[in-house]
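#onboarding

Welcome to the new folks! Below is a worked example of what a typical request in this channel looks like: someone posts a single protein sequence, and someone else replies with the predicted structure as tokens. Don't worry about understanding the tokens yet, we'll cover that in week two.

Example request:
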Amino acid sequence: MDHIKLLQNPSLVYIGKLSEKPDWNFPSHRHDDLSEIVYILGGEGDFIIDDQPYLVQQGDLLIYNKGIFHEEKSSKNNPLKTYYCGIADIHIEGLPEGYITPMGTCPLIKQNKYSEQMEKLFSMMFEESSLKLKGYDDICKNLLRSMIIYIQRMAQLEEMKTKNDSETLALQIKEFLDKNYLKQLTLEEIALEFHMNAYYLSHVFKNHYNDSPINYMIYRRMGEAKKLLINTDMKVREISQLVGYENANYFSRIFAKTMGESPLQYKKNEKKERVNLK
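Example response:
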């Protein structure tokens, strides 16, 4: 989002600062008339947003779009320190009314190079709202507008980092599959190697290689089988075992399903078309 266009002027409903309250917690709730922004100054806490848990650290930002269920709880040993504010009448071009970030995006924006500016904006806005000196409301409106722009910048950096992390993860999965494709691994066993959810792992891999991890391993085995069929006089049963299939009949069915012909048909057709000079 290169240009931020506000279709109406947002208004600051409240702003606060949480500090040194180890027993502080706020059960699950939502706001149907406003959005909320939470900036983590320090400490630890449990955040659950739309039934998903999130871990936070200093400099992180949490965005609660209008109507999103969320709950918060401070750590007793390391109490949360936060700034927070509620915003009404926010409508950014291209987003639903009451949304600060696009629908479906992660509500947690990790600390990045704009976090310091966000903290300064919160501090200034909190001070102006507390003192209520002449013209404070105009200053707060300008600070709030700046805050929204910085949130978009932070979200954009987070999106880029997530994309880069996803590409790195996909490559790591592929390297693992290339080393272990002869093993009959399940998706859950692969995911266990990466300490992550099987669905997410499959989604990341398919998004980058347009195939599932299991199918990728099958095609790698079939590629190895093709090479052995062409370049050796090994029997199908022997090749089957070498590429990870104890049952030769099952291997032949998989080969025919993926390659469009049986192993013997493939070997026969290749011999007709290939001229070996050595």
